[in-house]
Amino acid sequence: MMSATAPQSQVESSVHPAEPFAIVIFGAAGDLTKRLLIPALYNLKRSNLWCKSKLSS
Fold it and tell me: What does the pLDDT read at residue 25?
């Protein structure tokens, strides 16, 4: 059976930073936000996949 996923090198070459956007988090004090959402946003920024805007540092 053939795999439907692309090789890692093809995936990395097709990934580009996002356009500027706004994020509104409802329930920001909740457990899901602390455990999953905030770490995911941090990892996007760390891997340079976060948008390039004047407000992000």
Answer: 87
